[in-house]
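Hi Y.,

Following your request, here is the sequence exactly as I used it, all 210 residues.
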Amino acid sequence: MELFADRAQAGELLAERLEDVRDPVVLALPRGGVAVALPIARRLGAPLDVLVTRKIGYPPTPELGVGAIAEGGEPVFDHTLLRRLGMTPESVADVVDKERRELARRVLAYRGDRPLPALEGREVIVVDDGLATGGTARAALRAVAAAKPARVTLAVPVGARETVGSLRQEADEVVVLRTPIDFRAVGQWYEHFDQLTDADVLELLDRARR
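Below is the corresponding structure, written out as tokens. Let me know if you'd prefer a different format.
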């Protein structure tokens, strides 16, 4: 299966699939989702902003996500995984508090005192650079849904098939370009998949405003 050159090219290809969405707000999950979202927002003539999310990690192995939280929303847990690990949401309360603080820091860094755009009654496109477990995307979609938009589309270049299927219950539409059978990690489907910094995110948002 052909790789995406980079996030920008993936965003261009996604934008072609989203041209029928009228007058949307585009919300990107930082950091990588912002680079995918910029070409989409430009093609649709739409405002671009970030929706900050944080993974809630399993304390002994923080890379293992047992849940996630998005700004404006409550923590969303993988209860099946928590039970398998012999844990409850209360077991990771300290992790949730830490991630809330980091989420607040990133919101301040990316948006300053500006609030999220008004979403009630609007078409909203939520963008990320790929879906592995889908925990942060699920938290983001639920936070957006709480703002009562008219319709929510999740747009990603690539995702694990099972994850994409499960997220169809969280959005009105899921637009995904590739769902490979041998999915192992998002980065394997890009030729260039550099880690972005906060400064990169701010530059991309500034380009969107210009």
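The helical segments are 7-17, 32-44, 79-84, 93-111, 135-145, 161-167, 198-209.

Thanks again,
Q.
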